[in-house]
Amino acid sequence: MSEINKNLPNKSVYKLVGKLQDYKWGGNVFIPSLLGQKVTDEPVAEYWLGAHPNASSTLKVNENKLVDFINTDPKTILGARVYKRFHRLPYLFKVLDVKNMLSIQVHPSKPQAEEGFAREEALGIPRDAAHRNYKDDNHKPEIMVALSDFWLLHGFKSSEKIKEILLGYPELHHLMSVFEKDGYEGLYCAVMLEDDEATLKTLKPLLEELESDFDAGKLSKNQPEYWAVKAFRSFCSPDKIDKGIYSIFFLNLVHLKKGQAIFQDAGVPHAYLQGQNIELMANSDNVLRAGLTSKHMDIPELLSQVKFCETIPNVFEGDILNDNHETVYQTPVEDFQLSKIELEKNERFAVKSSSLEIHFVLEGAIQVNADDYLNLSKGEAFFTIAGCSYEILAQENSLIFKASCPL
């Protein structure tokens, strides 16, 4: 028996402790309160549950890393089909508290990530280099479910709405001919590749004019102008305007209500603006940024990955299964599946896992019965290995989110 698990009981279900991330855009109340921790002035942006090599969760019983535990017998723990397809846990499960805007982002497809990663490996660029684009060879699709009112940018607006924006502001009129001639690609490339002086000349007077409406409370969070002014004050200096502000005008502004979901596929430009959510994604760090950030941006590489077309945001609420207790949020990818389990006090939910499944108790208190009993309350997590038959008993009204692999 390996050094990692020789002291573990022979079980198929374990409590799991995640890793906190203190990114500056995070709030400082939601996640500590959820986890029963002390609230301080320091940001707590994300809580990670998974086997990411840079921030693996740990087993509560002995503080061993989940990634190391999996590696003791990956075929059994992950499940034969998941192991054959991915050779590792293919997803990363998160809780996010977005207080301030995140960067405009695009994620590559699997073939694009493989090509980009191989290219940068051949060039000898260190994987932890700040200017590296591809940290690994994987894609990074992701799904989120809102835990509060949540605002984000997601894909390009319709042609009609783009034209309304361009005609609605005199400072943007000169871009109408570009859009009519060269479409989404021509428009976005034009603004992202223009020099900083041109961006300053175009956007600064527009944003300064909008500030008076913002300060007078005339702009709402459901208007792009609101977020444009916030970005102006957060990411810009008197002599330089962040080009990401163009994206605020050109991308769909989506307002999700609690319980609603949206899926972000490869090539779709997007950005989280404000709110709390549960997020599940492929296990990758590949991000190409388009603004609202001080981090590295490779604009030519970004533009080679963007889907230049209208996006109609698909906001959905999932499919109810398993005696009306489980809601599954279906996506087109094999890497992950997100679901939520809702139980009233004394209700039971029984199922058999086909892959390693991670559960997070968002509300309530539960008892898990497999080959042992685990008692969990709000803010705690557990995982089951593949092939585990288990039952959840709600000790009070409870809401649990579950991450799994649908293979």
From TrEMBL:
A biological process from GO: GDP-mannose biosynthetic process
GO cellular component: cytosol
The protein's Enzyme Commission number: 5.3.1.8
CC cofactor: Zn(2+)
Phosphomannose isomerase type I catalytic domain mapped to chain residues: 14-157
Leading EC class: isomerase
Keywords from the named record: Isomerase, Metal-binding, Zinc
Superkingdom of the organism of origin: Bacteria
Reaction(s) catalysed (UniProt annotation): D-mannose 6-phosphate = D-fructose 6-phosphate
InterPro entries on file: Man6P_Isoase-1, Mannose-6-P_Isomerase, Pmannose_isomerase-type1_CS, PMI_typeI_cat, RmlC-like_jellyroll, RmlC_Cupin_sf
PROSITE patterns attached to this UniProt entry: PMI_I_1
GO terms for MF: mannose-6-phosphate isomerase activity; zinc ion binding
Binding site for Zn(2+): 105, 107, 142, 270
Cofactor binding annotation: Binds 1 zinc ion per subunit.
Gene3D superfamilies assigned: Jelly Rolls, Phosphomannose Isomerase, domain 2
Active site: 289
Family to which this protein belongs: Belongs to the mannose-6-phosphate isomerase type 1 family.
Protein name stated in the entry: mannose-6-phosphate isomerase
Organism, as annotated: Nonlabens spongiae
Source lineage: Bacteria, Pseudomonadati, Bacteroidota, Flavobacteriia, Flavobacteriales
